[in-house]
Amino acid sequence: MDESEVRQKAMAGDSDEHAGAQSPAAPRKHTAKAGGGSDPQRSLRVDVVVPCYNYAHLLQECVESVLSQVGVDVRVLILDDASPDDTQAVGMDLSHRDKRVIYRRHEINKGHIATYNEGIDWAESDLFLLLSADDYLLPGALGRSAQLMRDRPSVGFTFGNATISRPDGTTQRFDPIVTNGIKDAMVYSGSEFIRLSGATNIVPTPTAVIRTELQKHVGGYLKELPHAGDMEMWLRLASHADVGFINKDQAVYRRHEANMSLKYYMDDILPDLRQRKKAIEMLFQHAASDVRDDDALRRFLLRELGREAIGQASAAFNRRDTAAAAAIERFSLEVYPEGRNSAAWIRLALKQFVGPRLWGVLNSAYGRAAD
Q1: How far apart are the first and last CA of the chain?
Q2: What is the tens place of the pLDDT at every residue in 102-113?
Q3: Residue 163 in contact with residue 251, Cβ under 8 Å?
Q4: Taking the mean position of all CA atoms in its chain, how far away is CA 109?
Q5: pLDDT grade for 266, boundaries at 50, 70 and 90
Q6: Quick one: average pLDDT of 209-229?
């Protein structure tokens, strides 16, 4: 998986309660044409675009996980972004063995944004999924999504739970939302989803099945957002349509671990926060008109981002990366000036006042209660 690592809501540092935020205005709804055309029993067609760069050793597993899906008519569109490994041989072999697989190769590397958008242009079936070649679907995933979207024409895209596969071979189930009380599926209005998501990406990308008609209507990924394009896309789609959640494990995605060194906060966390700020700004240029004009929603998203930034600044301080803590704190106040009145910011200011060494002593003496 490329830039679309799912960021969990829980932060390593301090956090604030999210009480008191008003729900954003409901966006204009998109309603799809009746699925299946004149035959309501026809299986929905799904185009699964598989962008691939240097994942020849994983490509077959990915493609076979799509071909084995039941209850839908699938087509696999492999986009090889000029991989220097054996992707071409594997892709051509897969296309020769199954007519549902089509392989296309770039002569020069175009990058993931251009490749994703080429896949969107290529797709022509009822539903659409971008599935990175290092991820794969679990049995029944597409059938569950297709059934929900057939039953609920107002749903523009669905997503679900995923299994995280780590480099050390261990796995972890990722449930992107609190699913207490949800049996098999749930439909959120666009505004409910936007508020649930806030200023982060809660959608495991290999689980996101989108109506092709809607995807083409809202357009492709933005070149200005190489590291937060997924987040902006889900929010943009939700500004046009309802969102379905499948309370099942839908896919496996491989998490590429970040380097948790002192430089991590300055080199990764701060740029990520800045990209998400840019994503929010771009959302209000490309969303449905109701969202573009919703100043309350804009403030809500920036407030959520600012609160997370304060927590990340606190986490950096806890690791004694005081320079990063100060830089992230400045960013938090840039997007959420009112944050200086929050309990989390006051705790951070207190920690900075006493200094990392004394704060560490206090934490040790009081069993981290001071944090």
Answers
A1: 34
A2: 999 999 999 999
A3: yes
A4: 24
A5: low
A6: 95
